[in-house]
């Protein structure tokens, strides 16, 4: 299900309509919009909780944006810009789909999102507590975002339980095929990257020349399995038949979303089957 709802959410990071919506309220530069929009459900927070919740960013990346962005916009303004840009992006990508298709998908995805358990899920719970959206595309995106952050909170917990710090996690993903620019783009230096790769080699996750080992692949697969298990409750609540129907409805929307997600992005989405 993650492979089908994540592309719905991810338009907010990659579609030009989303960036334009942030710029329209005074958040110029990609990272101002990113940090303001994604952290806005938490309120006008300082950097420290966002460093913890977002996990993969070097602290200086966050402190450069927060709390300074709240002098430019309020969290409420950032949330409106976030939703406006996402809806405009999805409208452009799904204009051929009938409204009934989108409304049914939104309804099922909302049912799943309402069943997401908030305990221990800071970003998931904050997004779940936002006022309900009104129109199908807004409802669809908001539900996808709640489920995405709910799953992400569980993923961070699984990474911490596996003893991985943020730069080690990214260094592992780069070794496993993610574009290296995404590691440097999150504020970690090449020196920190090399040190993290060295620690992974000491733990037998990587070979001395930086290739993934069988042990490393099995250990990270366990992280992914723990993430999936922690995120399964909404789908059990929805039930197999409705989840299957939702997957069918999301398929063309997810394929459209994939067209704006760059290859090798840190999201790590696999391609949808042909």
Q: Given the structure, what is the number of helices?
A: 15
Q: Roughly what percent helix?
A: 55-70%
Strand coverage percent: under 5%
| Rg estimate, integer Å | 18 Å
Q: How many strands appear in the DSSP assignment?
A: 0
Distance between the termini: 16 Å
Q: Tell me the structural class.
A: mainly alpha
Mean pLDDT: 95
Q: Segments where pLDDT lies below 50 for 5+ residues? A: none
Question: How would you spell out the order of helices and strands?
Answer: HHHHHHHHHHHHHHH
Number of domains: 1
Major sheet attributes: none
The general outline is: globular
Task: Give a description of the structure.
This is SalK. It holds the Pfam family HTH_67. It comes from Micromonospora rubida. The chain has 15 helices and no strands. The chain has 274 residues and is an all-alpha fold. The chain has one domain. The protein is globular and about 55 Å long.
Write the layout of secondary structure elements.
Layout (H helix, E strand, L loop, with lengths): L1 H13 L1 H9 L5 H10 L7 H8 L4 H7 L9 H19 L5 H16 L7 H7 L7 H26 L4 H10 L5 H4 L5 H13 L11 H17 L2 H6 L1 H19 L16
Helix pairs in contact: 1-2, 1-6, 1-9, 1-15, 2-6, 3-6, 4-5, 6-9, 7-9, 7-15, 8-9, 9-13, 10-12
């Amino acid at each position: 299900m993650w492979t089908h709802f994540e592309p719905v959410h991810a338009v907010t990071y990659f579609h030009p309509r989303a960036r334009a919506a942030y710029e329209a309220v005074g958040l110029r530069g990609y990272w101002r919009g990113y940090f303001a929009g994604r952290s806005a459900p938490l309120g006008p927070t300082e950097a420290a909780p966002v460093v913890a919740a977002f996990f993969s960013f070097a602290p200086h990346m966050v402190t450069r944006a927060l709390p300074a962005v709240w002098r430019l916009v309020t969290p409420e303004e950032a949330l409106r810009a976030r939703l406006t840009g996402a809806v405009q992006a999805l409208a452009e990508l799904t204009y051929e789909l009938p409204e009934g298709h989108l409304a049914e998908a939104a309804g099922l995805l909302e049912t799943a999102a309402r069943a997401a358990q908030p305990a221990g899920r800071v970003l998931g719970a904050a997004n779940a507590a936002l006022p309900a959206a009104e129109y199908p595309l807004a409802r669809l995106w908001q539900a996808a975002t709640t489920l995405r952050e709910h799953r992400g909170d569980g993923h961070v917990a699984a990474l911490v339980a596996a003893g991985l710090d943020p730069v080690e996690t990214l260094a592992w993903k780069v070794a496993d095929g993610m574009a290296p620019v995404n590691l440097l783009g999150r504020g970690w230096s090449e020196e920190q990257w090399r040190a993290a790769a060295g620690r992974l080699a000491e733990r037998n996750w990587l070979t001395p020349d930086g290739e993934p080992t069988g042990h490393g692949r099995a250990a990270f697969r366990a992280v992914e399995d723990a993430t999936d298990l922690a995120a399964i409750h909404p789908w059990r609540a929805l039930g197999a038949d409705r989840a299957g129907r939702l997957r069918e409805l999301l398929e063309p929307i997810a394929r459209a979303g994939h067209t704006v997600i760059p290859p090798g992005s840190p999201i790590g989405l696999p391609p949808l089957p042909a």
